[in-house]
Design a protein that fits this description.
alpha+beta, four-stranded antiparallel sheet, 3 helices
């Protein structure tokens, strides 16, 4: 009889430290991810009305606010479109053989993120820039 009582009470004692640490909030005690990886953005590099290459940009957004994170989830297609348009405008002024200047490109794309989100709160993270 005492063994049955022990088997009933034992799981309650095992769960007590997790509840005391804040694990009872429904999220399992894990912090919510703040990084959202966005789809690949590509733009053609045109020279003399012909395609001379393609620039591909892998990026993401670091967002701490859950409301802004949800908003970015909703506006991803529009954000990707605006970033592709800005990338295309940037490549139209890129000289042949010149590598992209990320110190110029990053603020242009960050401005598009801020305009789509409705203000600051989402930080653009450039992961990879490739020209073929």
């Amino acid at each position: 009889m005492n063994r049955r009582r022990l088997l009933i009470v034992l799981p309650l004692f095992a769960a007590a430290p997790a509840q005391a640490a804040g694990g009872g909030s429904g999220t399992g005690g894990k912090p919510q991810p703040t990084f959202i990886r966005l789809p690949l953005v590509q733009a053609n590099i045109l020279r003399q009305n012909r395609t001379r290459g393609v620039i591909s940009l892998e990026n993401g957004v670091d967002v701490k606010d859950p409301k802004i994170r949800a908003r970015i989830g909703q506006i991803q297609p529009r954000l990707r479109s605006d970033m592709a348009r800005q990338l295309s405008l940037y490549t139209s002024n890129l000289a042949p053989g010149q590598a992209p200047d990320l110190d110029v490109l990053a603020p242009l794309l960050q401005k598009q993120v801020d305009l789509n989100v409705g203000g600051p709160g989402a930080r653009l993270v450039l992961l990879n820039v490739l020209i073929n």
